Amino acid sequence: MYRPVRLVLLLHNHQPVGNFDSVFEEAFQKSYRPFLEVFQQFSPLKISLHISGPLLEWLEQHHSEYLESLARLVAEGRVEIIGGAFYEPILAMIPSHDRVGQIVEYREHLRERFRTEVRGMWVAERVWEQSFTKDLADAGVRYTVLDDFHFKSAGLNDDQLFGPYVTEDEGRLLAVFPGSERLRYTIPFADPQVTIEYLREVGQKHRHAVAVLGDDGEKFGSWPDTFRHVYEDRWLERFFETLLQNSDWLEVTTLGEAFEAVPPLGKIYLPDCSYREMTEWILPIEKQQELEDLAHEFENDARWPRLRRFMRGGFWRNFRVKYPESNEMYSRMLGLSFRLQRELACETTREQANYLEQARRELYRAQCNCGYWHGAFGGIYLPHLRNAIYHHLIAAEEYLDAATRPREPWIEDVVDDFNFDARLEVRLANDKLAAYFAPMQGGHLYELDIRSIRHNLLATLTRRPEAYHRKVLAGARSQGDHVASIHDRIVFKQEGLDRAVRYDGYPRKALVDLFFAEETSATDVESGQATDLGDFALGAYEAKLQRKPQRVRLLLSREGDVAGIPIRLTKAISLNAGSSVLEIAYLIEHLPPDFRFQFSVEMNFAGMPPGLSDRYFLGSEQERLGDLGQRLSIEDAHELTLVDEWLGLEAALRFSRPTGFWSFPVQSVNGSEAGFELVPQSIAVQPHWLVVPDRDGRWMVSFAVAINTTRAEQRCENGALVASK
Questions:
Q1: For residue range 106-132, what is the model confidence (pLDDT) as tens digits?
Q2: Residues with active-site annotation
Q3: Is-contact 515 533, C-beta < 8 A?
Q4: Are strands 79-84 and 47-51 parallel, antiparallel or unpaired?
Q5: How many of the other CB atoms lie within 10 Å of CB of 627?
Q6: CA 230, CA 214: separation in Å to the nearest integer?
Q7: pTM of the predicted model over 0.70
């Protein structure tokens, strides 16, 4: 006689802030809608369901009928709604006040929408630190699910993972259920009977066992090849039929009912952790590959299962080290969060309070996790996700400024450690632009916010090694026609990706100072074969600020070497109140009279994708030079303009002397759930000159970066940008 087993199916449905409407719709048609249609037919089966805030807002706007059907199932007791932080942030990424704020706000929103009390919570990417317990409990959360990997990392065995545990922080209590990694890999990829036999074994060993599947709902139709498998081949129907056929010993229930019915198995404190794959993705590339090699080397060794449970990967917060671009977004977000908290503590008018509430909502949206990391999913490599984060960050700052600044042109300069690297950065800002500079890293301009369209023109990504690149370089191909988990698939979405793998020796930002041999060509530069003769691209610059009432100027200077010759380089950046123009001047000194080299200032432009007819270059005579993916090698020009009609943006570079231009798209080879692909990251533009010093051994040039958003402003209604597409 089998002892009763409780099975909890907890699905997590999520689409990130900034994802394309078409992706939302495809996931709805392939996964969310058909799953609910099939599930409705199999009463009395029950599920627990978490819908992230970004997805719920989209459903409210586009498919309210789905939410009405879901609400009926909630009322019938067949679906339990699970809460979470509103816009799906990684809890380790946001401060405590935002954790509590997002959880409470979403709980209230769900209660109003579905007329139900929400007691459980989905932890984004199951990234866990023990101190979160207090915040969750303070926000009203009673129970959650983390992976069994968390519990094994705390020292538990497989036989101890079939029920909830209680954990504590500062006297606050929380129930935590282990989610089964084995069920994540069998559902829906193995025959339903495989799952049943596993659960039968569990029931034979454990009285009142609770087995929990906590996983993405998109695996039921949206993941590659799963729609045919799950729906057309009737896997889901067969799975539900099999569950009902075994209802004499198997109860399919909700997480909340299991919480009420089953007492805790004990008390536990869980280490900083996530699901197993995530802890591997965060490792440095060499360690990640070494772990992968060890797993292959020992996978047939009888001792491997015993050894594997003592192995742990990395710490999630180190994604901000692995990807400096993640740290740039994080530090920008955190600065705004702290500023908002300071303003909320002050006495405000009704109008100011309204602006601050709008700033809070934009800040919460900018905390959506997907653009801050990378694993089997595109994450930080997807430009539209990074652009969305900056869009909402700039919007939050816009509302904060509306609450605290007079409505007139203004200018400011601030020196601070903006990106938390123990080095000072400089911010030049006015009512039109915000420009961030890193004097200690090449004097780069690393962020340029255009307020009118809420766009960071430097939301770029530097190309760096990834563990999966060795698969790309080896030209591997997927084998067989079976349905595999996304963690196991090898699919190439384009040909020749092995030839497209390239790495950058410096961040793809702006005002990157490069020195090349006289004969260097555009092809040499794009391919990475050109040697930088100087030590300025990553060198430390001395910074000085000059201020006037309506104008600020940053002077960055460095004494360094070019091909062993000591020189001095100074670059000055000026910004006026009410202006959308950065004025830039370069001075190179101490040049030997017969010294010849090419000097180039690299500028990268992000969020202006190549290969589209409404994104293009204009020459000095306003003639079209091709779309932004066009590779340019132009001589003796005074101006080059990048146009993005969809953004309503023109970025013009205007020079004081004849200038050559090299331009090319910067594209990365990255992996996602759909396979390996080439992704545009920025448009690199390198104005360059053959330097001939004057009689005093000096050479200089000045230029302007002029931003024009008239097109976008003409599409504005009531102060909000209306997209043309």
A1: 999 999 999 999 999 999 999 999 999
A2: 125, 216
A3: yes
A4: parallel
A5: 17
A6: 18
A7: yes
